[in-house]
């Protein structure tokens, strides 16, 4: 379904400009930017699709030393042709024990451009798809996106892809809730990248007035917020939100308030402030932001990865039962301390819905595993996404919804019960 909608979008947005990229005999490609010339390369995928690839283009001055924790500032101009043929280091994640690619640096504000090799037939240039990665605002990168899929899927269809890293965790989202340290630095990085793209994408054959900003998970929450903030909402035209929004708990934009139970705890994520948010809430901003065409999507069993079940032995999974979900609802999802005096009624409703409704006569563990993943999906992502869609529709946003229900075999292998 996503594919159909997406193809639809791509067909609607028909393509172009005179690309000013030049190919050399050795496959080098040269392009201008307003900061100086760059040299990338011509890439050909196994499917024979070609693209012009530029990796590691600086979109801000390295945010190091005095610039650490500061909003990004434009890069310094360069005179010599800058080599942009390999990815630069990823931004430093909060916790990297489980992360494979460990090439990190504070100096990480470099974007990547994958463009069709031909000029667009539309004099205004190709539409531009800007991808903001997920990772809960504390990890993630765009190196793993590579440039092969963007070539096969997007360059082939006349779209320019730009992948954007931004500062994470401590470096990007630490906030003390004070004027000196309002936070949202990672969101300001994303804005700096959008400005760079708007100013430079014409040199790559792109249309600066046809920019689609697409994010997944925390990236999805980011693009939602970018489409609302007065500092960014006029820098692009269309939005694709995959599995997340700005009012999700994980993106919860609260000012820093010391937690009573954990006074030293600081969460990393967007914070309501007087600058990026203009002193307003997401709900208030939706009322004033100009509506944009928006594709919003969710996946079936969206929350499966958060259940703690992937990786358990088949024997342990086979023991998963109604009792496990009931206990989780009582202890973690809806205890009195969270939902208040009506907790018994709320727990009963949740248990009826997630444990008993549509249960087969002789339920097996697979049934409960799926329902537990559904509980996590609704709790973490779905309910706020639907709330926000309602709000946007009421405020005149054209919203297109998709549900992704394909599960790749690697995903199914992590949780066999998740087969659909
Ligand atoms: C680039 O050239 C200009 C003019 O010659 C010069 O003023 C500037 O310092 C040079 N910049 C760098 C980074 O070399
Ligand atoms: C690009 O141009 C070449 C040569 O004219 C042509 O064979 C190819 O089909 C074009 N590709 C696209 C995506 O338009
Ligand atoms: C499910 O509950 C049983 C019995 O209380 C417990 O031993 C088991 O660890 C639980 N499984 C999971 C995955 O939490």
From TrEMBL:
Top-level enzyme category: hydrolase
Classification via PROSITE patterns: CARBOXYLESTERASE_B_1, CARBOXYLESTERASE_B_2
Which stretches make up the Carboxylesterase type B domain? 31-254, 262-410
Give start-end of the signal peptide. 1-20
Q: What is its EC number?
A: 3.1.1.-
Q: What family does the database annotate?
A: Belongs to the type-B carboxylesterase/lipase family.
Q: What is the protein name stated in its UniProt record?
A: Carboxylic ester hydrolase
